[in-house]
Amino acid sequence: MTVSSSPLTPTDVRTPQVPWECTDREALATRPFGIYLHVPFCTSRCGYCDFNTYALHTFPAGPSGDPITYWVEQLCHELRLGAQLLAERGVTLPFVSTVFFGGGTPSLLGDRLPAILEVVRECFGIAPGAEITSEANPESTSPELFDCWRKAGVNRLSLGMQSSSSRILALLDRDHDPARAVCSIREAKAAGFEHLNLDLIYGTPGETADEVARSVDTVVETGVDHVSAYALTVEPCTAFFRKIKRGEIAPVDEDVQADRYHQIDAALQQAGFAWYEVSNWARSQEARCRHNLGYWEGGNWWAAGPGAHGYLGGVRWSIRKNPRSYGALLSHGIYPADWCEVLTEKELREETIMLRLRVRDGLHRSVLTPAQTQVAATVVGDGLATWEGEYLVLTTRGRLLADGVIGDLLLVEE
What we know:
By secondary structure, the protein is an alpha/beta fold. Helices cover 38% and strands 21% of the residues. The strands form four sheets. A nine-stranded mixed sheet has the order 9-10-8-7-6-5-4-1-11, sandwiched between helices. A three-stranded antiparallel sheet has the order 12-13-14, with no helix packed on it. Strand 12 (309-312) and strand 13 form a beta hairpin. Helix 1 (67-88) packs parallel to helix 2 and helix 12 runs antiparallel to helix 14 (402-411). The longest helix has 22 residues, at 67-88.
């Protein structure tokens, strides 16, 4: 269904809480600060995707008739409005140390992306040496795009390869040819990108061990310094879910996915990569994604774009998901926050457990209650984690069962 602009409705103008009214301001200066910019459109939607994205031809185009130009104008307006409201309330933030364009398909922005970075710099300031990352899909990249982005300051690229098998890409509704991802990396290197990531998706029904091996070999041969590998998850309301329900595709086999994870982890380690988060491997400390580490290690980040989620000093909020409603609010000068919550001390500690246990550096013993420490001892006895000094670190088997380990720790009564 096509999304179109319209006047504000009563639902549009309900007044949400906003993050600057309830932030622990003292915490803002002590941790890294990043910005996440959500690009909510793709050429077409992949069958497994449940992100807040829309096919470009359905997206509101505004007076210009160009949906991308219209969205860029709205996003810049949102950034300026948010910065203005922060200033009016005396909220001071450090300069941005990481910027991340996610989506969706940020590579569809083309030469419009530098203008957004300029607004980020104008509104929040970008620290020297900041990591500036954009996601991209192979079919919407080119040498000209990479040259443009690199000159604008983008220094890290995350490319959605997913698989080197044409058959698997077709099952996932991906548009690109396997060779295009390799070519894109070559072009990005020529443009001078400092850090390059390739995304893989494993565990697609019917995927063979040989197909996974070829995908990993292809990734390694490109010379990238970072790899992300995610198990295919089938979410309700996606086309993939409906195909499985109709029997057109076999269900996901979790045991097979576990085997594929072990296979990928072993192959990447042999090639010189080290895991630093359950789904992420890097060739060096410098190659790690600083923006994502900010999420996992309790940093703060501003969020902009429909459906984006932000976090500042113990407060979490989201931006209105619906593009029409989002645009209508902005056109009336209303910051488009949808909801906001202030986390309690208990919730903050639970968040720390959930996030820190996923990273290689581990979870410090001091975060755990005495009862949780006893559970941790059982986890270690079961071979799912080890104590490295004062830090609880998941084993390879523990990484596969991370959600279960975290759940056991959080279920313990105080």
